[in-house]
Design brief:
This protein has 312 residues and is of the alpha/beta class. Helices cover 30% and strands 27% of the residues. It is built from 9 helices and 14 strands. It has a 7-stranded mixed β-sheet with strand order 10-9-8-11-12-13-14, sandwiched between helices. The longest helix is centred in the N-terminal third of the chain and has 15 residues. The chain starts with 6 loop residues before the first strand and ends with a helix.
Length: 312
């Protein structure tokens, strides 16, 4: 009688650190793979061991540069052509997720195109965490296991034991996420209304709610330029907040984001290792999502539920 297909975990180039943590939590070694690079910049990934008949989990965040996405697509294709039983893409950070709608004429839908590319490459399942918008799951024609950073952040916030705790969304789009935290932590919530003139540039922020005499934690899915976050923290401190902290799953931190955070009134910014940090700050604290993804992989392999462990 043929038993359950074995599973193997492989990492692409940019997510090796988090992949090693996931493998360590599962008590296994990462599968062997290599990347052949050509002088013109083209590359070709290769599995250096058999994956025939295996559940294959390929770990890679798709943050820029675009080669990260391309490498994941090629790895998926290689696994399918090597007769893997199932090919699962573990994407700690799903790049292009902010391109999830046509907010002005004649623009692309990068989140949908990326989903189509992954599906066409032959992926059987996606495992990711804190998508920029929940509805991106519907862009895929394969199952999506959407995990939540709240499994890490909610206990961290609770253990701070802050009196007069208030959570906040940095904009109206994050109100659902902030409300979930407020209900779980049984605390107050405020919202920020921001006015933009162009992407990554915030002209004005208004605070809806009371922050005076309160310890505020801003909840977000990612931090890019940190402009909105640091602007909101400044406005809250000016309005009488005792302290302002922030938690965000994905530390994109482009441009001079680190410098902005250092100069801001933020007490700390807590992020995960979904994207490797090449530069950091004394104000930035990193929590690992390795165990969360390891448990999700285990659940997928054993066909058990994952929802109870990763949502409020």
């Amino acid at each position: 009688m043929i038993g359950r297909a074995p599973f193997k975990i492989f990492s692409c180039t940019s997510s090796l650190s988090i992949a090693e943590k996931i493998a360590d939590h599962l008590g296994i070694e990462l599968g062997k793979s290599s990347l052949l690079s050509f002088s013109d910049g083209e590359f070709q990934p290769c599995f250096d061991e058999s994956v025939r008949g295996c559940h294959v989990f390929i770990i890679q965040s798709t943050n820029p540069p675009a080669e990260n996405l391309m490498e994941l697509l090629l790895m998926i294709d290689a696994a399918k052509r090597a007769s893997a039983y199932k090919v699962n893409a573990v994407i700690p950070y799903y790049g292009y997720a902010r391109q999830d709608r046509k907010d002005r004429p004649r623009v692309s839908l990068g989140a949908k195109l990326t989903a189509d590319l992954l599906t066409k490459a032959g992926v059987d399942r996606i495992i990711t965490i804190d998508l920029h918008a929940d509805q991106i799951q519907g862009f895929f024609d394969v199952p999506v296991d959407h995990l939540f950073g709240s499994a890490l952040f909610a206990p961290y916030i609770r253990n701070l034991n802050l009196p007069n705790l208030t959570v906040s969304a940095p904009d109206m789009g994050g109100s659902k996420r902030a409300n979930a935290y407020a209900r779980h932590l049984q605390c107050e919530m405020v919202l920020c209304y921001k006015l933009r003139k162009k992407p990554n540039v915030v002209e004005e922020i208004s605070i809806i709610g009371e922050v005076e005499g309160r310890h505020v934690v801003i909840i977000d899915d990612l931090v890019d330029t940190a402009g909105t976050l640091t602007f909101a923290a400044t406005v809250m401190k000016d309005r009488g907040a005792l302290s302002v902290r922030a938690v965000a799953t994905h530390p994109v931190l482009s441009g001079n984001a680190i410098e902005k955070i250092d100069k801001s009134p933020l007490e700390e910014l807590v992020v995960t290792d979904s994207i490797p940090l090449h530069n950091t700050s004394p104000k930035i604290k990193v929590l690992s999502v390795g165990e969360i993804f390891a448990e999700a992989i285990k659940a997928v392999y054993t066909n058990t539920s994952i929802s109870s462990g990763f949502v409020f």
